[in-house]
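Posting for a labmate who doesn't have an account.
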Amino acid sequence: MESKKRSRYKPLKTEEAWDRLLIASENLKVLGRLSDSEAQRCLEAVETLKMVQPSGKLKCYKEFLYDVTRNSRPFVLLCAIALGQVKAVDMTNGDRLGLMGKIKASKDNTDINHSTVRSLAIQYHIPDSVTDLPPLLHTADERLRKSATPSTASSFRQSQPLTKPCCLDIH
């Protein structure tokens, strides 16, 4: 009998992720600084946003952070320190979409988006908008295009979506 290895983490639901953002914001209001591990997660998030064409989980994390950046620079900081790559990527698309809705609705709420969070976002060089970032690249699988003949390659492009989305694109 073969047993499947299960993740020791269950994916966060929208409300759990939001609660983590609220707690992180409250902690920053009191402490006024990031811990070493939070600073590291923040720097990793900025590097991920600047990557030209990541793959796998990093691509999904970049898409998530990209969508957050469209709404508010300080929330990128909060998502990086409160969720990190693993928890953000492991959330379902529906829960990420729900979280994005809460972020969008709260971007002007000074209880969570306060001056300490905003100044730390600037201090850690979080991009102000997506115009400061390399574009999200959506390309078809290179292996399929290389192995296909010219006629099947064009029919493949017409019949298949360019990418399998791992994160929802919110405009």
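Reply:
Got it, the structure tokens are right above this. The chain has one domain: 14-138.
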